[in-house]
Amino acid sequence: NCDRGGLCSSIKLEVIPNLLFGMGNPLLDISAVVDKDFLDKYSLKPNDQILAEDKHKALFEELVKKFKVEYHAGGATQNSIKIAQWMIQEPHNVGTFFGCIGKDKFGDILKEKAQEAHIDAHYYEQDEEPTGTCAACITGDNRSLVANLAAANSYMKDKHLDLEENWKLVEKAKVYYIAGFFLTVSLESILKVAKHASENNKLFCLNLSAPFICQFFKDSLMQVMPYVDVLFGNETEAAAFAKEQDFETKDIKEIAKKAQALPKVNKKRQRIVVLTQGKDETAIRLSDKIEAFPVLKIDPKEIVDTIGAGDAFVGGFLSELVRDKPIDQCVKAAHYAANVIIRQAGCTFPEKPDFN
């Protein structure tokens, strides 16, 4: 497989529990179809991800009062781990997930949903902050996400990641995935995991996650970048990243090439850069060439919402990566998972995948 861009190592991976590790912001998604007036009232762009500020405090209550809402277990990394597990099916608990929640009703829902999704979630539970929420404001096939991190922001390396029984789960994994959103919470936790992966020639994957991460958390992002084996992003994040890094190009293929060339600690593996472009082809920088993979066609009428598309893409990709499959197979699974998710409300899915 290696000549087809597989991330092969001498060890062939048998799929066992805790092979895939994710760490991030566990949030309860509260989604609703809203109108333009609602977006304007809270100065939201139709298609964006932001952190809630004081002016958004009333948004969450108004959303629940005025519109028909649905609750889903969310948070970018947790979604991706969940989708990877769904794609793999058996055994259960291939994906481990760490994050911080509150001791409250929403926290209980998250625990329940993680169990239903067969992921091995180990939450750091504290009672100072409530469980985080994310308002998904849907208009047409756009979604504007407003995250109120609350408890998710309180993750503590020394209170959770460093505990022996938790760190053992980190050591069991062979593939690691963290969304860039977690850079706003615990850089030291990310670095500890990233260094472990690099020192043991395991795969560390990171997502740019949002333009604001590339802009306002640039220093943290660039502290982690030398450990990144697989970098994910979409076209708007790639453009923001290129601008902040002075790449002096808007061309997606050039951006992928320059992102790949950034310094890297583990020289045994060359970085792979995976950039999605919505309905347009996915661009992948692999060794010294760029490859373009068309996405699966879908009738716009069949799109329910695009909330979980990016997370699902990563989840599908990871489900094949943990099985040591070649990159073209990883992308095929990624496109399949994203295609399924956009036909559903939120990051939800049918009982079983129809993918081989």
What is the fold's blueprint, element by element?
Layout: E1 20-23, E2 27-33, H1 36-41, E3 48-51, H2 57-66, E4 70-74, H3 76-88, E5 95-102, H4 105-116, E6 120-126, E7 132-139, E8 142-148, H5 157-161, H6 164-172, E9 175-179, H7 187-199, E10 203-207, H8 211-216, H9 218-224, E11 230-234, H10 235-244, H11 252-260, E12 272-277, E13 280-286, E14 289-293, H12 309-321, H13 327-341
Parallel strand pairs: 1-5, 1-9, 2-7, 3-8, 5-6, 9-10, 10-11, 11-12
Antiparallel strand pairs: 2-4, 7-8, 12-13, 13-14
Cofactor: Mg(2+)
Subunit structure: Monomer.
Enzyme class: transferase
Number of helices: 13
Number of strands: 14
Mean pLDDT: 93
Distance between the termini: 17 Å
Question: If strands are numbered along the chain, what order do they take across the biggest sheet?
Answer: 6-5-1-9-10-11-12-13-14
Shape: globular
Order of helices and strands: EEHEHEHEHEEEHHEHEHHEHHEEEHH
Q: Per DSSP, what share of the residues sits in E-state strands of 2 or more residues? A: 15-25%
Poorly predicted residue ranges: 1-6
Rg of Cα set = 19 Å
SS content category: alpha/beta
The largest β sheet comes out as: 9 strands, mixed
Determine the fraction of residues in helical runs and give it as a percent range: 25-40%
Please characterize this protein's 3D structure.
Helices cover 36% and strands 23% of the residues. The chain contains 13 helices and 14 strands. Helix 7 links the parallel strand 9 and strand 10. The strands form two sheets. It has a nine-stranded mixed β-sheet, sandwiched between helices. A five-stranded mixed β-sheet has the order 3-8-7-2-4. The protein has 356 residues and is an alpha/beta fold.
